[in-house]
Amino acid sequence: MSYEPSAFDLAAAVVRRASDPNELLGYLATKFQAALPGQVRVERGGFLGRGPVRLVDVALGDYRYSMEVQRNMLQARRAKTVRGVEISHEDLTVDHWVRELTGELEALAEQSEVYGEAIKRLALG
Description:
By secondary structure, the chain is α+β, with helices and mostly antiparallel strands. Helices cover 43% and strands 31% of the residues.
């Protein structure tokens, strides 16, 4: 069973080209919360957390993918976890982060219909 997240990649690429990093982060937060409920943590800034998205954190398998806005720039990271404890991490470019995360989803989809459905929700919006 093969899944093609290309529509999601294309949509992310279009938004990524926007001048506002908060726009991309908001887009990703919405997409991932809808596709992977319970596996996504979103932090917002502003009064009572009603402002723009500041952090998106996605837990997939043994990895945690996070992206946040720092000094009006996007910072992307992938952390390896064992039983919920981070044992290593690496900083990634935004493009690499999207590719790695969608690749991990594809690998998980080969094992679980739940992740296959998540990819479809990401691609279809």
